Amino acid sequence: MELGAKFWFGIIGGAIACAVAAVIVLLIIGAAWARWGFFVMFLLLAVVLLGIGWIADRREKRRRGLPG
Asked: Helix, strand or coil for residue 65?
């Protein structure tokens, strides 16, 4: 079974996109750390991740038709 060029270009493109996203996230976290210190950077990261989790939870509840 041959995978073909489209598959490999997709894999390479995905790897490049992940690398760019990782650099952007690390730059944002590093800037927050440099400006506000470790504790506030950690607090900001926790708030952002909790917000993402809350949004995902609400979306899943709505998808399953659960109350709340």
From this structure: coil
Length of the chain equals 68
Distance separating alpha carbons of residues 39 and 43, to the nearest angstrom: 6
CA distances from 5 to 2, 25, 32 (A): 9, 30, 41
pTM for the model stands at 0.64
E strands, the chain, where? Answer: none
pLDDT of residue 2 exceeding 90, the answer is: no
CA angle (55, 21, 14) in 5-degree steps? 100
- Which domain covers residue 17, as residue numbers? 4-64
Count: domains in the chain: 1
